[in-house]
Model the fold of this input.
Amino acid sequence: MSKPAKSARGDGKAAAGGVMNRVKVTVRLRPLSVKGESADNANCVQYDVNQKLLWVVPKDVTDKKNRRQFDFDGLVGPDSTQEDAFKAVLPTIEAVFDGVNGCVMCYGQTGSGKTYTLSMLSPNKPEGEGVMPRAFKHIFQHIAADNGTHEWKLSVQYVQIYMEHLLDLLNPNNEPALREESGTGVVYLQNAESVPVVSADDCLAAMVRGMSNRATSKTLMNAESSRSHAMYMLTVVRSGGPSCVVSTSSLFLVDLAGSERVKKSGVENTGMDEAISINVSLTALGRCIYAMADKRGKIKPPFRESKLTRLLQTALSGGGRTSLIVCCAQGDSDVQETNSSLEFAQQAMRVQVKEVRREQMDMNALTVHLQNTVDAFEDRTHAMHVDVWARVQGDVLSMQGALDESRELGAKLYNLNLLVKELERELPAAGTNGPVEHASVSDAKARLAQMRAQLKEALKERDEVTVMLPEIAAEYRELGGHAWHNGDTAKAQAFYEKALAAYLKCLGKDHPEVACSMGDLANVYCDLGRFDDALEMYQHAHRIHGSSYGPEHVDTAGDLASLGLVYSVQGKHKEALPLLKSAYAILSKSLEQDHPNVVQVRQFIEKSESLL
Done:
């Protein structure tokens, strides 16, 4: 046995902007029993399923040109099951779950088992179902397992290309046409029936309906030969979920017409025209595959040469995953067709396409998600505020009571001490060891010590509450930012005012965080047209930043710029210009010239100078 030839295999690899996916090829060998063949007259193919190797060995030992060796991504032997064929293309089918197009094509000569592999229906024997029915069930099982996390909308289209005419299999009265999206190169169907589906049964019903309208005819190679290329397109739109992303992808399931020599198929008249048309379109497909496999990139794939390649343009080059199932017979009489099919498959394995996820942000879902987040923050912060305020208020009342009681006890103790001293003067000094302390004085002292301990504990708890205030202030500031960016100025103002009050209480009036909080509130005041209030806030912030960081700091310059911008908006360009120039001199030293803040200040300087 000859040494295996160099493999064309290679897994997807990372590339700039995405993953490079190579076309994955699986060869399926038709069982001998299908055509009543035997090992005596059908032994031109030898294979090793485990090694995924296949040899074409013609019966005529002198026929060296047809003696070939191939290796592929997968090899499904003649005694395999439909499940084996399905598993070989499952990763391509699951591409739609990731917002990526998937394409499964069946290729081969007439009678080699393409339609059986792809679209076989077997209501009484589920194990006999082809790739398409299994794919439908698998997709809807995945949707069911999602448990409503996302919203799913699916629809199907089913068309055929018969003698270079595009026909709608779901509504033969339609006249579908191919169109291309401007700037994207994505080819799509226009005026073709699109049927919404909500279950695997709906998908199957559309498939059966379309297959009944598909063109077939009798040839020497197959009594029910499909004389057209058929493409079933399942479009999946997924929206919602935590990521708030809408992904749109399509699964292309393609049953290609049989590829064989006209002489061998025995067709004539209309059948001859059909065969010629089929071979022309398959030749165009082969040329596209050859051009895409050329690593030099010097050949442009001729997708426009046929309706088939035009329709497959998005599936093959549109940034998805593609799997090719090549069906082959094992008979000696089929050696040329088998070699031709395998050579096409080997060439297809060299095609690589960069994976593209077709996603866009779902702004409605994102808005709802952000609003829910803001509401949750607000509820949590409000609850925390109520709890902390109740504790602080209780502590204050407790401390006030303790102070009042302490003063009362102090006065009582003073009076008692006076009384003790008076008693000591009146009592005879003889026989005593020292001053006599009245019992009521001892009780008062003990009570005073207890009150002071309670007061100390209350002060400690108050200090612990005060430590939490920066976190509360930060929560308010974040909520204010969410509200402001969502256009809710009133809510932003309320949150920013609470944040500033909390920062002032825990950090004091000269802390940089207080200055930042003032800047937030000043921005809102500007939106409300309260420019004088905004100026006052920016001035306070500038004083704090200048004292904390120095006059040349970016934050200090930012406050100057804000003051200048407000004056400029008010039309006070004479006051604005020196502030803006001072800010620009500092910012341009620390930031890049194309930084948004630098650009904005420069533009306002130019505006003020032009108006003076």
